[in-house]
Amino acid sequence: MIRDVALVAGKDLRLEMRSRVGIGQVVPFALLVLLLFAFALDPERGVLDRVTSGLFWMVVLFCSVLFIQRSFGVEAEDGIIDALRLTGLSAPSIYIGKVAALVVELLALEVVLAVGVAIFYGTTFGGFPLLLTAAVAATLGIAGSGSVYGALSARLRTRDTLLPLLLLPLLAPVLIAATRAFEVGMGREAGQGWSWVALLGIFALIYLSLGALLFRPLMEDA
User: Fold this and answer.
1) Taking a C-beta distance cutoff of 8 angstroms, is the pair 52, 142 a contact?
2) In this structure, are residues 208 and 101 in contact, taking their beta carbons and an 8 Å threshold?
3) At what angle do helices 27-40 and 91-120 cross, to 10 degrees?
4) Rounded CA gap, 1 and 96, in Å?
5) Fewer Cβ close by (within 10 Å): the C or N end of the chain?
6) 58 near 175, Cβ under 8 Å?
7) pTM, rounded to two decimals
8) Could you tell me which of 98, 88, 107, 67 has the C-alpha nearest to residue 212?
9) Which residues contact 116 (CB under 8 A, 6 or more apart)?
10) Would you report the helix, strand and coil content of the chain in percent, each value rounded to 5?
């Protein structure tokens, strides 16, 4: 199973590296959104400083939709979903492989966004263990649920608009928990940030478990 997961994840990552969609389109879009918020919100009144964590994860969620649409849209158009079914790979292996590729892409994006937040907003990061663990747990939840809905909407003509409508409400708890954990880790709020990380872990475990169970019928329907 590990070999199968590595094959699927490697395929997706090679496809992304060759197309350079993430580097050429998604990353500039994410940085542009951060820059626009820096101009729109008044830093002198402290508004920008108070909402930094929420803005960070909002941009991550919006960009994750673009990554998910790209990952499943190309496969639906080129018939790769049918080819994967004929390879004999198990549906859970394909699912976990696609989740792993999305996690790598999103974590790379989050590193770039963290640098952008530090430059544009003047934010200093502390509590790295808490921030890193929260980022990994939240990213697993986003990738796990996104892969399910990406497969569900892959061959629909309205997938570009349907996927955000389905996915973003489901990820609202992840957005809230990740934002609160980052606020504690960045010193914006007092409290137990690890409790929010535990909640993120529960969400990630639920999304991944359901995804592994549902991915086979979703591939057959697709």
Assistant:
1) no
2) no
3) 40
4) 10
5) N
6) yes
7) 0.89
8) 98
9) 30, 31, 34, 35
10) 85, 0, 15
